[in-house]
Amino acid sequence: MSKIYFDNQISFGLLPFETVYFDEKGPHFLLEHYNRLRRAHKILKMEFDLKFEQFNNTILNEIYKVGREYGVLKVIYYNHNIYVQFREFNYAQKHIDKGIILHKSRSIKDSKNILNYLKTFNYGLNIIEDNRAKGRGYDSAIFLNEKGFVCETTYANIFFVKNGKIFTPHVSCGILKGIMRDNVIRKLKNNRYNVIKGFIKYEELNEFDECFISNSVMGILPVSRIGNISFNKRNVFEILSNEDIFMRKWIK
User: Fold this and answer.
1) Are 226 and 136 in a shared domain?
2) What are the pLDDT digits (tens) for 21-51?
3) Angle CA(127)–CA(129)–CA(133) in degrees, nearest 5?
């Protein structure tokens, strides 16, 4: 039986990873995923000698072997080897039709914790709060930080709309700087929206007209409610959802 060496990366959840969405056009944002994976290894002072060509070819080969029209691949680089695993999809048409319902997390994010800014296996808190929210009939949970500012959901970045302006939590609140978040901001600016990366109190959420979330797997999804605060408009979401990079094969 082969032995596994339980170093700090494995034992303490420090191993970086990426989740890559693919469809018939191929993997999405592959260079961005590669760069973020490399950056996380560098910050955590872990060896990273993986070239983009190998990263690209390994993922393309895995997509071919999986034989699915679309799906998600989880990618890690450990001990000079790249590992890719197919993952079933977690989202469905109902999330578009009804909108996502979020519960306020009991746990808080520490904006000084560097792991909040990196995508690593240190996801225990996210899983616990996501499961707790689902157990109460919600789709997921939303985190606040130690100062009471909105951060992100358990697996996605979040956006709010008020008077035609777009608001999203500043990275320094303690969030993962999502690849899809960057693309949402870029598309919004191209459409001449004013995007404000700021500091949003939970008590201010009832001032917003619209809310949606984003990550590389789901693309974007509308939020219909956070706690007892409802969001009835979808104007910006509907504009963005017509953009090719946000379309997903599971949407009717």
Assistant:
1) yes
2) 999 999 999 999 999 999 999 999 999 999 9
3) 115
- For residue range 120-175, list pLDDT tens digits in order: 999 999 999 999 999 999 999 999 999 999 999 999 999 999 999 999 999 999 99
pTM flag (> 0.85): yes
Per the listing, tokens 């960057």 go with 182
Helix (H, G, I), strand (E, B) or coil at 78: strand
CATH of the domain at 29: 3.30.470.10
Last residue of a domain, one of 42, 63, 87: 87
Structural domain for 58, as ranges? 8-87
**Helix, coil or strand: residue 196:** strand
Query: Looking at the domain assignment, is residue 212 inside a domain?
Result: yes
Q: What angle do CA 129, 134, 138 make, to 5 degrees?
A: 105
If one counts the domains in the chain, the total is 2
What is d(CA 31, CA 43) in angstroms, rounded to the nearest whole number?
A: 18
Which is nearest to 87 in space by CA: 147, 155, 179, 141? 155
Residue type at position 81? N
Paired tokens of 189: 């600016």
